[in-house]
């Protein structure tokens, strides 16, 4: 399951903000993930990676810290034209490398597709072990009282 050779993964730049925002808005409107404003994306830009195909943004994901030892893979999405080609897996690998370089001990994510993360060593856990996420971010989500996302955790 290799990403196509023409896929390039790189740190997001300012001129990617609109494309990242368009991807997030598309999937947020489908209910797949939380919406994020342009301001929020801009403030977190340094945490984002993008995957490009022939120069166009095909996917993005971010790794954002809650504490010095715990971070989250967020806003992971691949344009529908490029799914099931290993691009999300490639981004997850890059973000795990980033977390390792940052000496982070735990990487978590909330997902509807735990299998995608299990393939990278994550295990399913109870969301309640992440009060930073639940009471810092989830509490503002419209799905807070009936969230069906699954929490996964990788210990580094
Ligand atoms: C979920 C998503 C990021 C996966 O991206 P992708 O690049 O297609 O994923 P990969 O090709 O790396 O998939 C690797 C493996 O994960 C699993 N997987 C990926 N997407 C899956 C899906 N929709 N349903 C079930 N398993 C899936 C499969 O085991 C897959 O391997 P396979 O293709 O050999 O069967 C993409 O479908 C997407 O952007 N969805 C909409 C946004 C979203 O839900 N984001 C939140 C993700 S946490």
Please list the strands of the largest sheet in the order they lie side by side. Answer: 1-2-3-4-5-7-6
CATH superfamily: Gcn5-related N-acetyltransferase (GNAT)
Q: What are the bound molecules?
A: coenzyme A
| Largest sheet properties | 7 strands, mixed
- What's the quaternary structure here? single chain
Mean pLDDT: 92
- Shape assignment: globular
**Could you state the order of secondary-structure elements as H and E?**
EHHEEEHEHEHE
Kindly estimate the percentage of residues that lie in beta strands according to DSSP.
25-35%
Task: State the CATH topology.
Answer: Aminopeptidase
- Specify the CATH class: Alpha Beta
Helix-residue proportion: 25-40%
Radius of gyration: 15 Å
| Count of domains | 1
Under the CATH scheme, the architecture is 3-Layer(aba) Sandwich
Total strands: 7
Give the low-confidence spans: none
Total helices: the number is 5
Output the structural class.
alpha+beta
Distance between the termini: 23 Å
Describe this structure in words.
By secondary structure, the chain is of the alpha+beta class. It has a single domain, classed as Aminopeptidase (3-Layer(aba) Sandwich). Helix content is 29%, strand content 29%. Strands 1-2-3-4-5-7-6 form a 7-stranded mixed β-sheet, sandwiched between helices. The relative contact order is 0.15. The structure holds coenzyme A. Coenzyme A binds next to strand 4, helix 3 and helix 4.
